[in-house]
Amino acid sequence: MITGPALLLALLEGSVGAAVLALTALGLSLVFGVMRVINIAHGEFVMLGAVVAWWCSADLLGAHPLLGFLVALAVAPLIVGAIALAADWLVLRRISYDPERTIVATMGLLYIIQQGVLMSYGPDARPLDPPIYFRVQFPGFGYSGYKLIVAGLALLLLAATWLLLARTRIGLYMRATRLDSETAQAFGVPVKRVYAIVFALGAMLAALSGVLIAPIRGAHYLMGADPLLLSFIVVIVGGLGNLRGTLLAAACIGIGEGMISVLFSPTLSKIIATLLVAAVLVVRPGGLARGATP
Amino acid sequence: MRIYALHLAVVAALFAVQFALPAYHYGNVTRIMLYAVFAIGYNILFGYTGLLSLGHALFFAAGAYGAGLTAHWWSFGPVAALGAGVGAALLVSLVTGLIVYRTTGVAFLIVTLMLAQAAFLSTLYFNTVTLGDQGIVLSLPPVELFGAALHLADPAVKYNASLVAFAVALLLSLWLLRSPFGRVLIAIRENEARTRLLGYNTALYRFAALVISGTLSGLAGALYCLLFGYVGSSFASLQYSTLPLLWTLLGGTGVTLGPPLGTAITHYLIDISSGLTSSYMIIVGVALVAITLWFPEGLAGWFRRWRRVRS
Amino acid sequence: MTLLQTRNLTRQFGGIRAVNDVSFALERGEIRGVIGPNGAGKTTLVGMICGRVPPSAGTVEFDGANITRLQPWDRVARGIVYTFQITSVFKRLTCRDNVALAAQRRLTRTTGHRFALPQALLDAAVDEAMAAVGLTEETERIAGELPYGHQRLLEIAMGLALKPALLILDEPTQGLAPGDIAPFCDLIRRTAATTTILFIEHNLKVVLELADRVTVMDRGAILAEGTPAEIEQHPAVQQAYLGD
Amino acid sequence: MGVRQSGKPGHMSRRRVLVAAGALSGLQLAKPFIITAHAAEPSLKIGLQAHRTGIGAAYGLWYERTSVAAVKVINAMGGIGGRPVELIVEDDATDAKRGTEVMEKFANEHKVDFVFGPLFGNVVGAVAARAGELKMPLFVVSEGSELAAGDFNRYVFQTGITNVRSQVTAISPWVIQNVGKKVTMIIPDYIFGYNHRDFFSETAKAQGGAVNAVIAIPPTETSFTKYFSQIPADTDAIYHVMVGPGVLTFVRELGEFFGDKGPKLFGFIDSLEAVDIGAPGLEFLEGSHLWEAFPRYLAGHNTEGAKFYRAAVGIDENGASVDNAKEISTSSHMFGCWETLFSIKEAVEKSGYKGPGDKQALVEAIESTTGYDEGKGHPQGKKQFIGKAHQVFAPQFISKVEGGKLTVVHTTSIEDGLYEPAADYTKQPL
């Protein structure tokens, strides 16, 4: 039975999901676009963000959860970015960003991060106190006010990333490397450094979305799988490495997923999404190698 | 011929050690041989043909569910259920092969990953049939063979059934590798464009390699389900796609004995480390990173090179 | 008797016509050289003949049949064999495996043994091709370890093992030591006894010495065609290609 | 009697987690060896198969703590049959495949006498089959109803905690009469949830109620709001029972969705095990009812046995860890481990079990048991045991959320939850 409130709820769930998803997927897309590698450990960066948010939320400060949340927003990207830089320097650079070996290596990284968190943080799903708690009443149902704030923050962060890419020197370097790394190098772009920064930036975006969702879903060492899968889907449907396509796909898939989840079944919506990706690649197998225009 | 003698000696040794192994290792070797069938199947696609699949759980699960569902719902006996499992894996491989007919490289990797993920989610979605997460527990009647009743619960039956499957898979893959067909697969791995201009429809060969690889993986899944009496949705999860990759990479790609070696090492590494820490899967992560950094050819490849340097 | 005929063959890359409306005929049994400056469209033309490059327009006929839409491997089955400009042997395999890949392609088709080709049959075919190019001693070596000139010969052995009706060679003498060129020309002449040969070549001396007829290409079109003597005298050729 | 325990997984305060992670020294040793140092008698080895990691981790942590405490108590009492107990813990990652491997490891490598502990249905099913093949007595501490239905084999027992069918049979009359007649069920999408669905639908109908919708949610789900729009508008009562890492999010989002205007709520405490009822966002639970097997707050079940048990395990009167008031126990499940170990003690001593050769006598001794008396060994209450079905039956509790705490408002008798099980394992060969 499809009613007005159900549709509205579907739209809300979808939009919030889409905003956070866009942030996660943008990181993955950036890494692919510039470095031409796929980072299987991307979801673990989201999980690390959530775990850092949990640390900051109560224990570190003992103050109001809002303060912990703001600290986490600042600290999580720094920690996760540093881990990504280390991974780039210790592993990816040494295998010359070979596409297939990078996939294997980042898959190893996935297990190392996930199991490392299990070792130090433990196996429990730990809830966080929401930094801001209020309820918004819609006709027929209520909705978490924090979720609406999350959507807004995600959009702000997306805009900030966009500015970084469009208006700064490092953004210019990234765009140049994306188009043609050899030419960029010839024009004096420090390509290796750009790679490292892009890998870190991608991880930082993932970590930020982890901080944002932590108060909703808590922090758990296995929580990286879902964001990875969904952002994978978004990045491919949007055209690998195509940032605008990624954002558009995040909106479509986030909202579509929300709709199908609410109206039918979340599992069904994920099945449809994965098959959609397979279909896109089967029809356009070359789309991956060529990479679309920005 | 010496190479066949070496492989037969491995099989004979595995037959012989069953009389000396302590019970716990007996069970471990049984599992290792079954997983090795999976690894050998994976290697035909990855090691010989050069196609990196991240979706082999699809075939393993197809075999396991083909056997498990027919045994559970239609009371198939073990032999019929094994046939159903292998048949299901063959069918799934054929369909997958047609879907990915023209895809290679990273696109192939992602498509196989997505198909396997869709299959995994489907085992959850259609849980009235598959019983989802919780899975199906089987209790099977004994198999009549030469007048004797073989109970699947008997460790010796498990061991020797796994050994037979292992021997078949190993010798088949060796023969395949050395046949004209296998030579073409290797040529595709080395340089697909060149192979095409030698007169080979490489897409068709890739398709054939996928079907053989998938069916062997399904044989492993079907036997695992029947011998250990259980199939659940975790058999279709990503872990069952990454493990054969690790086994093959660790043991050595493109070497017939590499994947079984990698399987054995991984199994014992996980088993030993699970006694030290709950985070034992970290071993898998460290191994994957170490292989890409230092042993791109795996242990067998490294050993071969080391021998060549010495001689 | 015409073996190969292209009609109005055209290939566009973006806005550039690499090959523009080329109609080109090849007689059975001849040795044909193709010359022209870089970018003249020679490699694209033979690419369309062997099926590596799909044409934008026009047709290719081989042995009386239209093969324009055939895949490269089907053209190999009909006897069109191409060897690359840059050597493209399987560097990590032995020479024997390299040539066997070619030989088994022919043998599985002619003998009907698909999976278990008799080893002796295959070995004989490999040895014959290796002997033809004079590499018998190197048969068991890893291809990538051979010197460059020998890799080129191996490439030709692979072509020969297919026993082609038309052998297309893309700059076969490039990278050969000067002393190796004369034996190479002998090899081509011997091969021509059973095979039609189409070769692209920059070394004009080799072309004039080896070819029965020569085609000159420039900017995607055929500039001139004739016997080596005629081509040497052709004014347009002298200006465009031999000018200095 | 020396007790050495190397590392308690998950037993870390937030601050300690930080320190451990910083030093990267948090390598948690997986086997707390409870070694009986100078005992003359060889020890009795018991394997605890724990969901230490995976989606059952919250339960696994407390199963392990409770079991360690019980073994300490039993050893202090002189052990089992005069022999000290050695507890060996292995993690099955809440995974069926790993579970069967662990079972083999117990049987063939550690050579334990008995195994106990699996809770989640997927693991129980796979492990039960393997235990039968290995002829290893297995005491599941699970609420699955399959054992009493005859789906397992002669080596599997449920002596510590009763099953879902019995729990639902016991409480459903009260729920239909006091909470609501048109019920929407929210259940986890696997066997445990189906048990709830099937048995509650059946008993609700008998009481004049009806289930008007069933919403099944995968146990790995982390976001729930999207499911709630499937709840029909004419629902009087929501019956919820969720498990897995997302339980707190589930209850919070349920509250956000309905506010204070929604249908009345009745839940199984599974939705809130290891979760603080007073956590922010759970205010809407005030006044709702929950089933409990073992009241979380001491006041609801203030017996001598319960006090002894709580002190030994280390939980305070609010059901939290004495070390950390924020760490809430899985009170309604973990007592099953304690009671299982004491039931093993009784069975071993009754049968005169000396070693694996006496397994058959042990099985028959358990099958001839008719019940357990309330006391230190069985703090949850008096038990009735139906030997042929290997199933224990117990009283149940219904509690109301009042002032952010749980107050017991109704206690069922054993008879309320009693039904005639289909299984008769005594006919199977040993």
Automatic annotation (TrEMBL), chain A:
InterPro entries noted in UniProt: ABC_transp_permease (IPR001851), BCAA_transport_permease (IPR052157)
Transmembrane segments: 6-33, 69-91, 103-123, 143-165, 194-214, 271-289
Keywords: Amino-acid transport, Cell membrane, Membrane, Transmembrane, Transmembrane helix, Transport
Pfam families, per the entry: BPD_transp_2
Bilayer topology: Multi-pass membrane protein
Keyword Transferase carried by entry: no
Locations listed in the record: Cell membrane
Predominant place of localization: membrane
Source taxon at top rank: Bacteria
Family statement drawn from the similarity comment of this UniProt entry: Belongs to the binding-protein-dependent transport system permease family. LivHM subfamily.
Name of protein: Branched-chain amino acid ABC transporter permease
From TrEMBL, chain C:
SMART domains: AAA
Keyword NAD: no
Keyword Oxidoreductase: no
Record keywords, A-Z: ATP-binding, Nucleotide-binding, Transport
InterPro entries: AAA+_ATPase (IPR003593), ABC_AA/LPS_Transport (IPR051120), ABC_transporter-like_ATP-bd (IPR003439), BCA_ABC_TP_C (IPR032823), P-loop_NTPase (IPR027417)
Domain ABC transporter: 4-244
GO MF term set: ATP binding
Name recorded for this polypeptide: ABC transporter ATP-binding protein
Protein's organism: Dongia sedimenti
Taxon lineage: Bacteria, Pseudomonadati, Pseudomonadota, Alphaproteobacteria, Rhodospirillales
From TrEMBL, chain D:
PANTHER family the record matches: LEUCINE-SPECIFIC-BINDING PROTEIN, PERIPLASMIC BINDING PROTEIN OF ABC TRANSPORTER FOR NATURAL AMINO ACIDS
Name used for this protein in its record: ABC transporter substrate-binding protein
Pfam families xref list: Peripla_BP_6
All copies of domain Leucine-binding protein, residue ranges: 44-404
Family, similarity comment: Belongs to the leucine-binding protein family.
Protein keywords: Amino-acid transport, Signal, Transport
Signal peptide: none
Keyword Zinc in record: no
Organism lineage: Bacteria, Pseudomonadati, Pseudomonadota, Alphaproteobacteria, Rhodospirillales
